[in-house]
Amino acid sequence: MAKYNKLPLDGIFVPPATPSFADLIEQLGTEDSLTPARRKDLISGLRRVAEALHRTPAEVPADPQWLQPRLARIAPAAIGVTRKTWQNTVSNARNAMVACGIVTKRQRRPEDLSPAWRNLWAVVQASKDKSLLSPLPRFVFFLDRVGIAPEDVRNDHALLFLEAVEQNEISKNPQAAYEGAVMGWNLARVRLSEWPRQRLDLPSKSKRVMLPATQYPSDLIKDVDRYLEMRLRPDLLATGKTLRPIAASSGTTYRYLLLRFVSHVVGSGVAAEEISSLNALLQPGHVERGLRHMLERNGGATRASISDTAGLLLTIATHLGLPEEIVRILTQYKTRLAVHEPGGMTAKNRDRLRVLRNPDVLRRLLHLPEQIMARPLGQRRHKALRAREDAIAIGILLYCPLRVSNLSTLEIERHLQRPGKGKMFLVIPASEVKNHRPLEFELPAHLVSMIDAHLSDRAPTLCTPRNPYLFPATRKDGPVWRNTLSERIKRRVRDEIGIEMNAHLFRHLAVMIYLDANPGGYEVARQMLGHSSLSQTISVYSGLETISATRSFASLVDKMREGM
């Protein structure tokens, strides 16, 4: 094996001569231009940032590109400070790097601008448009600093701005600043008549291969929709094997997988007109070309989406009664492209659950809904009511580990049933559950009170008084989109507690809490989650008891040591 320098990979891309925070602290100690108070603030900023990174100042390189992704991952709540305090801390650390000549000082005074840019910036300020005042300042001052006139700004200058931000920013996301600047520029074109007319473009990040809707053969679309209708609402009196109905969400997924696969087949060189039906799509030659195209785009390796597509194609061929030779070939493709996932939860989910074994963190999560509900609505009523919605969603997930697709579509009258005073049951019929198992939970009194209080306050700020959904969509009468609600829950928990937790992780948390208190209690966990089989529950969660087992063993060893 060839020899190489065993440098820490964590800092492999940091230039060798880069000073550490400890070097900066030493340099600031001899900087005569700083007042004692200012010197103290800058040094404190460096020390606190290092502490938040779980490192000593000597272990933190004063390198913006090293710092950016690491500081972006820090949630203020996770280190026990407010967002404002953390912003001040990072600002002090950055100013320390400015004082030591590592990064440049930000220029934000209008008088620093040349006349042309100063006049334009005055127009922006006069508009009082926050959507322009937020993303444009750094871009405008940068363009003026490098000598670009307003009418000469082009895409290359925006990319140069991105490069400058990457070299001088230690916490904010450079890509987000760049995209915000470009979008802010284009928005100013629309809203301000004085703004330069040229449009700036962002490089496309899309890797999708989906054809435009108009390019799919209409007969194929009809055939796909007929097949999915058969799967969603199978004919109970049809001859042959009776199919179990699939959930609407599964139908949507199947449709997407099929149309994406058609796009891959066309991308491989097959004319779209040749794929006028599912039978035509499932011809082995077309299937092979489509799957090869997918593999090429993934470096020659299979992945879950390729495996799922191969499996779906085989299922459809079987349902349509295609010739045995076609089924045999598609079976071969499915077998070769299968992704064999290891049993149990993913490593990422295990890591996130492990944080919740800290009693203080778990306690904060359990009390979070009530803490949010206790806050006054104040002047920003809409924002406060949305926060209360998030609190109720989290509260429900803590007691009722639902899938987010069911949570987002809860109807007040239909799913929240009240058999008696103060009682409320969350009831979801089997037809609306992924695995066709009915779900029923009794909600605790404090959660019922939270729901009632919110329902009395939410209209008309969030929705009309007659909106039937517990979590209504913005500006329309339907329910919130499940991905939107899931993202809101994730963001709320991160902002309030400082941990990464999506809506689905609440299901894992429910099982962890129950199995910790009731080792081996998989049947109750199965019923709680609505799993169709006990083996499914055991295969996913059997590893959760390892912590309890090792903890019990450690306790036994401690007792033996004390007795010897």
TrEMBL record:
GO terms for molecular function: DNA binding. The keyword Magnesium does not apply. The keyword Lipid metabolism does not apply. Pfam families: Phage_integrase. InterPro entries: DNA_brk_join_enz, Integrase-like_cat_sf, Integrase_catalytic. Residues 357-555 form the Tyr recombinase domain. GO terms for biological process: DNA integration; DNA recombination. This is Phage integrase family protein. It comes from Roseovarius litoreus.
